[in-house]
């Protein structure tokens, strides 16, 4: 009797390659932002994969794509998912791997004639990255029931709001509350590590212990745009020099804490002329730590230093909060299940926190969350060089497959 193959890694790899073509950039990466044609096309591709896996397919009120197995009355849902939107010039693994692995596991369960007690839902969450609107995890917030009408007012750089984008793409923001999922047993996600821990430990997969919580801030320093040649150095209100001092100090502050990070990802200068003293500088801070108090301490110290620089240099300072997500501890029981399944495939059991944010954070205090990491080559992500091997992906898919079986057998 032919041994049942747990996972069809060729099918999963083909799906990864096929999806990666959608949104390809001239720089070799992928641009697939929320409520765009590229994302619509990618979702249509996912619909095919979901239907082939025997799932019934639907979109919820804000456009999350959901594939469901037949429901057994009353039993809570095992939710598995991730996102297919990308950062600018992203790559094929961040997010997409989690959605495709979830579909593959369900497809393989079906082929192996395994019928679970609990209903399963696979979900491709809308806009996890926050690339288009500077506000992430829109889809998982809707599923958690925490996305508000206020949130939908956020606009992209063309002035289009999330609400307009939702309606333009045929979804219905007025049914926002209908997107909330009730009666969920747990949420599971496979994701690339995007760091170097598994590689340093020579491990293919890892069990996630928790997810650091990001706070995104927009700083604007305003001084006075003046002639670069005619204005003496001691008579300037140079917004860029002020910003530079603040950004350098932010790095120093973050380095004082073992797991804190502070990043400036975006910066713009006005009027941005070679011979003009910068009158205004706007930039973003992404500040994180697995410990919320430490994260908030780093944020407070950066703000205090900024106020001092602004006063010293006669600059105006405005700080806008773009988003704040609490860190998440992954469920202890699910972690034990995942570690057991890693042992069963004879892999070293590594537990590690996630420096990157993930949709599961939105389900804090709602239902248990578990995450399985796949090794990232050189720890690179948010970059076309992002890579995870087929062998490692197959191992993670097997761990998810076995974890789902174990969680389904629980009372
Ligand atoms: O920003 C993050 O950590 C994730 O990639 N959205
Ligand atoms: Mn990402
Ligand atoms: Mn991601």
Defining key terms:
2 domains, binds manganese (II) ion, Alpha-Beta Plaits, Aminopeptidase, 411 residues, 14 strands, alpha/beta, 5-stranded antiparallel beta sheet, 9-stranded mixed beta sheet, binds (2S)-amino(hydroxy)ethanoic acid
The shape is: globular
CATH topology of the largest domain: Aminopeptidase
Bound molecules: (2S)-amino(hydroxy)ethanoic acid, manganese (II) ion
Low-confidence stretches: none
Give the strand tally: 14
Task: Tell me the distance between the termini.
Answer: 32 Å
Work out the count of structural domains. Answer: 2
Q: How does CATH name the architecture of the largest domain?
A: 3-Layer(aba) Sandwich
Radius of gyration: 23 Å
How is this fold's topology laid out?
Blueprint (H helix, E strand, L loop, with lengths): L8 H12 L16 H16 L3 E4 L5 E4 L8 E7 L12 H16 L8 E6 L12 H7 L17 H7 L15 E9 L4 H4 L4 E7 L1 E10 L16 H17 L5 E3 L3 E4 L9 E10 L2 H21 L3 E9 L3 E2 L2 H13 L6 E4 L14 E6 L15 H20 L2
Parallel strand pairs: 3-4, 3-5, 5-14, 6-13
Antiparallel strand pairs: 1-2, 2-4, 6-12, 6-14, 7-10, 7-11, 8-10, 9-10
Helix pairs in contact: 1-3, 3-10, 7-8, 9-10
Bound molecules: (2S)-amino(hydroxy)ethanoic acid and manganese (II) ion (2 copies).
Question: Can you describe what's shown?
Answer:
- It is globular, with a radius of gyration of 23 Å.
- The strands form two sheets. Strands 1, 2, 3, 4, 5, 6, 12, 13 and 14 form a nine-stranded mixed β-sheet that branches. Strands 7, 8, 9, 10 and 11 form a five-stranded antiparallel β-sheet that branches.
- It has ten helices and 14 strands.
- It has helices at residues 9-20, 37-52, 96-111, 138-144, 162-168, 197-200, 239-255, 292-312, 332-344, 390-409, and strands spanning 56-59, 65-68, 77-83, 120-125, 184-192, 205-211, 213-222, 261-263, 267-270, 280-289, 316-324, 328-329, 351-354, 369-374.
- By secondary structure, it is an alpha/beta fold.
- The mean pLDDT is 96.
- The chain has two domains: 9-211 and 327-409, Zn peptidases (Aminopeptidase); 213-324, Alpha-Beta Plaits (2-Layer Sandwich), CATH 3.30.70.
- The structure holds (2S)-amino(hydroxy)ethanoic acid and manganese (II) ion (MN) (2 copies).
- The site of one manganese (II) ion has 5 residues, from loops.
């Amino acid at each position: 009797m032919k041994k049942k193959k747990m996972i069809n890694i060729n099918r999963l790899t083909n799906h990864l390659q096929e999806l990666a073509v959608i949104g390809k950039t001239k720089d070799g990466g992928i641009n697939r932002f929320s409520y765009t044609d590229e994302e619509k096309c990618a979702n249509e591709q996912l619909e095919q994969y979901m239907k082939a896996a025997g799932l019934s397919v639907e979109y919820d009120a804000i456009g999350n794509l959901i594939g469901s197995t037949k429901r057994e009355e009353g039993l809570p849902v095992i939710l598995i998912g991730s996102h297919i939107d990308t950062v600018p010039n992203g790559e094929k693994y961040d997010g997409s791997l989690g959605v495709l692995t979830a579909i593959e596991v369900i497809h393989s369960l079906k082929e192996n004639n395994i019928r679970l007690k609990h209903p399963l839902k696979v979900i491709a969450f809308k806009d996890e990255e926050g690339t288009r609107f500077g506000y992430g995890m829109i889809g998982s917030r809707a599923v958690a029931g925490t996305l508000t009408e206020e949130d939908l007012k956020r606009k992209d750089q063309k002035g289009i709001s999330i609400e307009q984008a939702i309606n333009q793409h045929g979804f219905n923001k007025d049914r926002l509350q209908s997107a909330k999922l009730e009666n969920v047993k747990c949420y599971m996600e496979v994701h690339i590590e995007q760091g170097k821990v598994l590689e340093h430990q020579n491990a293919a997969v890892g069990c996630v212990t928790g997810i650091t919580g990001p706070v995104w801030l927009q700083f604007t320093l305003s001084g006075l745009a003046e002639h670069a040649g005619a204005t003496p150095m001691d008579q300037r209100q140079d917004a860029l020099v002020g910003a530079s001092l603040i950004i350098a100090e932010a790095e120093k502050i973050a380095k004082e804490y073992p797991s804190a990070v502070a990043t400036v990802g975006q910066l713009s200068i006005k009027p941005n002329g070679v011979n003009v003293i910068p009158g205004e500088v706007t930039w973003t801070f992404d500040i994180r730590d697995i410990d919320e108090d430490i994260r908030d301490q780093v944020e407070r110290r950066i703000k205090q230093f900024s106020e001092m620089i602004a006063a010293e240099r006669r600059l105006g300072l405005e700080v806008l909060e773009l988003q704040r997500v609490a860190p998440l501890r992954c469920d202890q029981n699910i972690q034990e299940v995942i570690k057991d399944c890693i042992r069963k495939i004879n892999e070293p059991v590594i537990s590690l926190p996630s420096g990157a944010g993930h949709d599961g954070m939105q389900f804090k205090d709602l239902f248990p969350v578990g995450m399985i990491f796949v090794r990232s080559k050189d720890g690179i992500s948010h970059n076309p060089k992002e890579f995870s091997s087929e062998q490692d992906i197959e191992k993670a898919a097997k761990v998810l497959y076995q974890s789902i079986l174990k969680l389904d057998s629980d009372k």
